[in-house]
Amino acid sequence: MASKKVLGRGLGAFFPEYENDSKGESNDKAPKKGVEKTISDPVERVNIVLNVPVDHIRANPHQPRTEFDEEKLDELAESIKTHGLIQPITVRYIGEKRFELIAGERRLRASKLAGLAEIPAYIREADDEQSMAFALIENIQRQDLNPLEVAMGYKRLIDEFEYTQAEVANRVGKNRTTVTNMLRLLNLPDFIQTALINDEISIGHARALITIEDASLQSKLLNKIIKEGWTVRQVEDAVRTAHAPSKKKTTPTKQPANPFYDEISNRLRNTLSTKVNVKPKAKGGEISIEYYSEEDLERILSIFDSI
Description:
By secondary structure, the protein is α/β, with parallel strands linked by helices. It has 4 domains: 9-128, Conserved hypothetical protein from pyrococcus furiosus pfu- 392566-001, ParB domain; 146-187; 188-240, Arc Repressor Mutant, subunit A (Orthogonal Bundle), CATH 1.10.10.2830; 257-290, no CATH class. It is built from 14 helices and 8 strands. It has helices spanning 16-22, 35-40, 70-83, 105-113, 128-142, 147-161, 165-172, 176-184, 190-197, 203-210, 215-228, 232-243, 259-272, 294-305, and strands at 9-10, 48-53, 57-58, 89-95, 98-103, 118-123, 276-280, 285-289. Strand 4 and strand 5 (98-103) form a beta hairpin. Helix 6 (147-161) crosses helix 8, helix 7 (165-172) packs across helix 8 (176-184) and helix 10 packs parallel to helix 12. The chain is elongated.
């Protein structure tokens, strides 16, 4: 069996028509081993690294990243001119001598700027869902995406591939609460999203502002964050004050304790290991469960999932 060590091999080794084209051979000659034969033998076209012409690689339509720092791209291009592309990009073969990028768009763009005709690419077998997931996961692992790009990537996995939030969390290696909180960022007004993209505020600031429905108050607090350097805690305190009901002059009469509801509260408190309050109303009632961090909330959710 041929050796699998194929780093840097040209496409002619696995796509014979590339060699034929480069030698100017006529298409009227004996039947060539063409693309179809290559496709019929997955072992010969995946899990290998080949030198691929850059103009034969199309962009990934599922690429979650939309912002690229031009200065950093130029710096990477200069490095590639000097040292070459050390880390191969990842692509999938789509037929007709063409490939689709899965991961490595920044490296591909910089290679084009550097004037490279071909670059090393790891050939991977992937469908649309896998291609999008790979691109999203790679960027998240490298922390190259801004928060809204991550949120949009999660949303596309849900909308286009019918993932649940739990499945998204499992696929990208995050807990479900994190995915939920990231998706909530998409509900922010444009002016807050822009501030988040421009690193004028943090995710913590943005999450605190989500709970405010008044756009004018959101704008006021945003200005405080940017101009006065408010911390997340300061914003949370301001939001808490805004949500606090106005104090009434008359103190409502405290309802006498009900042993039945006290027992239910205690049972839930013991099960969930956190403060729980059961409050009866004229019709039905409400259950209040406290949590103290995202990890604590995830712990409580896991208890419900196991029921």
